[in-house]
Design a protein that fits this description.
The structure is a homodimer of 168-residue chains. Chain A is built from five helices and eight strands; from the N terminus they run αββααββββββαα. Chain A is of the alpha+beta class and 168 residues long. Chain A has one domain: START domain (Alpha-D-Glucose-1,6-Bisphosphate, Chain A, domain 4), CATH 3.30.530.20. Chain A has an eight-stranded antiparallel sheet. In chain A, a hairpin with a 6-residue loop joins β3 and β4.
């Protein structure tokens, strides 16, 4: 595990693929056991420490982690502007699966369905997130939005938080 | 137009079809010009008079009819229980098209995308509503929910309201 944490950041980039015309698959391995990774994903107190790219300050407005519950995160950008992200949980099955909708309020009505699967690799965890869109056009819009760099920054922040929690 | 209003209710049933594996198409003709039908669809003050089956009392919590705006209707059932419906507008193009998401809060996270098209037939208007789901299973769940009788009741109430507005 220690070796893995010493890999350069590039070696840990998320793998993003488009196996069908309405989906985006993202795979990323984290150096922490599955229970801990799942706990971090579902803890409202920890969201501000890792969710979103660096420079964005996130506060949790709602995070009712159960089937049918709503979530809403407010992000403040470095220029002081705010934008919010929201959705609802369809399924929460610790420590294996979270299915939720995802909507960026400035583009309200463009909703995707995200299924995050947490795979136990012993001391490591593979998180696979599949985003499903109504249409290929919406999927391609997300791919063209710069999601990849934002995602990799988010995952690096999550690496750092997981390392802190382990050493703490 | 007077003749049409005298047709028995059965003759005006909505036509419900499933032309693809993720969609429900609904067609219904109303005895009123397109501008009026579109105006009624987008008027928060009129929603309680026609939206939903008879016996349900609907109040409009939000209805911000513009791209990116949210809507939320609270329905009180005859037994006093309440449930809400909500979504966001993607497109509002008077008097032709409304694209919006649709979610029933007790099943939050199950979101469909509805495109309503208003076709000018002179003194009548054909409204075609296409509901698009993420998966066939979700589409079939909606078909099995008794939507058809609820929809026909809603459309009959809309007939009545349109007739009232014309005579008033």
């Amino acid at each position: 595990m220690t070796d893995a944490r010493q890999e350069p950041a590039a070696a840990k980039a998320a793998t993003i693929t488009t196996p069908s015309d309405r989906e985006i698959h993202v795979e990323r391995v984290f150096d922490a056991p599955r229970d801990r990774v799942f706990a971090v994903y579902t803890d409202p107190d920890l969201i501000p420490q890792w969710w979103g790219p660096r420079g964005m300050t996130v506060t949790v407005d709602k995070m009712d982690v159960r089937a049918g519950g709503d979530w809403r995160f407010v992000a403040r950008n470095p220029d002081g502007s705010e934008e919010a992200f929201r959705g609802s949980y369809r399924e929460v099955t610790p420590p294996e699966r979270i299915v939720q909708t995802f909507e960026w309020e400035p583009m309200a009505g463009y909703v995707s369905l995200e299924t995050a699967t947490f795979e136990n690799l012993g001391e490591r965890t593979k998180v696979t997130t599949v985003s499903l869109f109504y249409t290929t056009e919406e999927r391609d819009g997300m791919l063209g939005s710069g999601m990849e760099s934002g995602l990799n920054e988010t995952y690096e922040r999550l690496d750092e938080l997981l390392a802190e929690l382990e050493s703490g």
